[in-house]
Amino acid sequence: MPWLQIRIHTTPDHVPAFEDTLLECGALVVTFEDVHDDPVYEPDLNTTPLWNHTKVTGLFEADADIEHIRPVVEHKAESLGETNIDLKIEILEDKDWEREWMDNYHPIQFGERLWVCPSWRQVPDANAVTLMLDPGLAFGTGTHPTTALCLQWLDSVDCQDKTIIDYGCGSGILGIAGLLLGAKNMVGIDIDPQAVQATEANAERNNIEPSRIEVKLPPYESDLQADIVVANILAGPLAHLAPTISALVKTNGQLALSGILANQAHDVIDAYKTWFTIDSVVEKEEWVRIVGTKHA
After folding, report:
1. Binding site for S-adenosyl-L-methionine: which residues?
2. pLDDT tens sequence across 261-275
3. Which residues are annotated as a binding site?
4. pTM for this prediction
């Protein structure tokens, strides 16, 4: 069946009031979107920042009384001082949303050999190294530039018989890719228990032997030092954790860092230059990957 949706363009300060009003009028769900595609990067802890121009959308059943709802929303706008409210009422046709969602995901190639593929698709290259990964709650599927940068790098280096640590493993995509590319074993570390579960589940989906993978919550108490460490988190945590992450890399081992905006690269490099010779800084869509080799 079709649905009705009401869209309101407003400012961050007025979002909670419009959200409450739409819910009181019977909205099944209320969502927030950015009107002008202004990204919000690395917000402060325990904050939920909104965009300067936010679109608030309330979804209603098809038989909702719009003639009642419209004046209620307009009255709320007047009380907030928004005399020229941008309010739109639209019919949203029903679809097979699961099929629509699945159709949006295709195999993606990273470098020469590596492909990430959802379970319902086939990789077009029979000789590919294929990582099976379904989009879901868990954190990383290769579509974000920072993940892509790390996967491309892993495909370009010699992982054979190496030990790899995926710090901030999320879905485990980077560590599991390393295993499929020949690494001997992998340790995943993440602060989120769901990430631990997701990494273990994705390793099983890719037929990784349990003895080759260990996933832990920090702090990771071990003398293990890896040949390769990848950390795709955010610039602030990367800089703060520099001593911890650096200690996980063997002498002459390699470190790849991402989750970093181009204008943050200098600060992250400064945090790691005590331990590493920086080999390359590669940019993709305003994000960068920093690679270094640990010196004695």
Report:
1. 147, 168, 190, 232
2. 999 999 999 999 999
3. 147, 168, 190, 232
4. 0.69
